[in-house]
Write a structure and sequence with these properties.
By secondary structure, the protein is α+β, with helices and mostly antiparallel strands. The chain contains 4 helices and 3 strands; from the N terminus they run E-E-E-H-H-H-H. Strands 1-2-3 form a 3-stranded antiparallel beta sheet, with no helix packed on it. It is elongated.
Amino acid sequence: MRLSNRLSAAGIVHLVARINPHRRQGTAQCIECSYCACMPAITVRNVSQVTRDELAARAAFRGQSLQEYLSAALESMAAKPDLDQLLQAVRSRKAATGTSISAQAILDNRDADRR
């Protein structure tokens, strides 16, 4: 079975999740088809050659393959909240506490540590 999901208005990113029907519980690799751990795959289309070459150079500098480098970058991105989530959490906390600090008070406290 193959599931697809197009992201972005331009449809530039195309996610493909491959579900392996041969997967066996508790195995790291499918015995019948040798598909490693039946992990989903991500395909990114319409990446410029310049961008691809820059990412490959960064990966090589770190002694990684392009796949390893991009996988680590995606894991890092997914581990952090995105900006909208972070701002919503701050707004919720501020609304719950009802406190407010002026910009001048923040700057005064910052500058007091520098004197």
